[in-house]
Amino acid sequence: MSTMQRSRPSETVAVVRPKRAFLRELLTFGFVGSIGTLIMVLGANLMRAWLGDSPITSVVVPGIVSTLTSYLANRFWTFRHRDSDGSGREVVVFFALNGIGILIQVACTGFTYYTLGLHGGIAYNLGLLAGVGLGAAFRYWSYRKWVFTPAAT
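Structure for Flippase GtrA, as requested:
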């Protein structure tokens, strides 16, 4: 066998490892996101039903609880292999980007409730879930880009 043929398996391994790491990262991010979504949806519905808060307030308060939970789980599990400079910048940027994510959720819920005039529970939850989905896509992209940066080599 030539040297060229022997080097191909190692090249394949080099390509597979980043794909596995990305897949692991994506799956753990999804799991953490699922927990955050449960906190958001259950909290929002409880606040809306039991406390009579507005649909906007009922998204913001559980959003803050979900954000704190998500930060801790993502920092110490999903993105644990990525650098943290310890300066607090990561926390500030994470919460700022989550603020944008919450605004996306509020916009979807507010649009459903105020613009479309749909006040029922199903419409509320559909608007909430649309916001959660769009917010999650934004969060994943922004976390990888600005918060949990690749480890220095």
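The radius of gyration is 20 Å.
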